[in-house]
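Exam prep: given the inputs below (a chain plus 3-amino-D-alanine), describe the expected output before reading on.
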Amino acid sequence: DAPSLAVVGVTGAVGQEFLSVLSDRSFPYRSIRMLASKRSAGKHLTFEDKDYVIEELTPESFKGIDIALFSAGGSISKQFGPIAADCGSIVVDNSSAFRMDENVPLVIPEVNPHAMAHIKLGSGKGALIANPNCSTIICLMAATPLHRHAKVLRMVVSTYQAASGAGAAAMEELEQQTREVLEGKEPTCNIFKQQYAFNLFSHNAPVLSNGYNEEEMKLVKETRKIWNDMNVKVTATCIRVPVMRAHAESVNLQFEKPLDEDAAREILKNAAGVVVIDDRASNHFPTPLEVSNKDDVAVGRIRRDVSQDGNFGLDVFVCGDQIRKGAALNAIQIAEMLL
Ligand code: 2RA
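Solution:
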């Protein structure tokens, strides 16, 4: 039988993308329960030519649900994820709530599918599976194929993160600010307490005692868990940039053994979920606009790191759609692995 689904946070940017991806990939389901806060309960939505009434999320929402897709923030996941799992549902959670829990697999299907091999649909036993943070997914989609060939010892990441990472309201505010600035008006700054349009700033996540922000430490910690390598050295600087829905990331890699740029380019050309855009002659490399609304992560600027001896280092530039592969697509691909 096709599984019964629940979508928690269905009115949010990722919730809506869950539905788009389910439809695009003809994901088989026998029913879908559309769940959101009390504020949205009762509203109608049409999905695949069927009318649905959005229901308020309650502890009873998961009876008879095989797979529950969550993207409603960490507190909702913390409160309802375990309830759903106890009900026998397999939860795919897009929040950061359980990512570092040692009993919860943190999965990118193209990277570490084995991490969830013990979780079976129809076993009656519920489970929690965590979707990594978007900037982690996009980075590791490019870095892992190379890591598999020449073991990454150190990775330095600079991210250029889209508004979508802060939600639909941030995307709306970026557009509004851009108009206001062009019209010579004061920009409306509700989501971020500073002007975003024609500007960029250090990621809005809280800054920790070590001077890194939470977004940067997610990249550090999630990489180690996903690669199952507590020794890999990772550092990151995450920046919010005035781009709508695709993240860009500059990634420097230091390897245990030589890996030259031509070999790296071939590896990436053959990597699942990756497209190489690396045309030096026409200076055509990945851009956020070119990957927006697309499944694949684009990699370019593949070059030997001249600061390293021989071929022990590479620099690459990666772009990926934050809402799609950075969140909804990855989660649905996890759900597909359960079928
Ligand atoms: C961001 N990674 O881009 C976050 C979204 N989960 O802000």
